[in-house]
């Protein structure tokens, strides 16, 4: 019988050791910061749905028409004047860059500010 007690005690010590090692591994993993890099979805519709902005430099007419408040006419003007918008935005502070969108007929300060939530350049 003493052999049985010896084996049982050995098993308990072994289990405690495994649990202690497991605790250390979990503590180490939980204290390390794992860096996650967000990746934007590939299509414009998904980007807008997930809150990403569309890049004015590479969008198409169909992409711009997905933006709330952008008609086909405004989308065409945005595409035609995107270089001018990008250049004009450099004269403003970062928080006022949306004002560069006001070169488009039909876009005032309020609309420009709303569109800036969906576009980047």
What is the overall pLDDT average?
Answer: 80
Please give the largest β-sheet: 2 strands, parallel
- Count of separate structural domains: 2
From the N-terminal CA to the C-terminal CA, the straight-line distance is 80 Å
Strand order of the largest sheet: 1-2
Query: How does CATH name the architecture of the largest domain?
Result: Orthogonal Bundle
Structural class: mainly alpha
- What kind of assembly state do the chains in view correspond to? single chain
H/I helix tally: 6
Strand content: under 5%
Element-by-element helix/strand order: HHEHHHHE
Rg measurement, Å: 29 Å
Parts with pLDDT < 50 across at least 5 consecutive residues: none
Can you walk me through this structure?
By secondary structure, this protein is mainly alpha-helical. The protein folds into two domains: 34 residues; 77 residues, Orthogonal Bundle (DNA polymerase, domain 1). Helices cover 54% and strands 3% of the residues. It has a two-stranded parallel sheet with strand order 1-2. The longest helix has 30 residues. The model has no long low-confidence stretch (mean pLDDT 80).
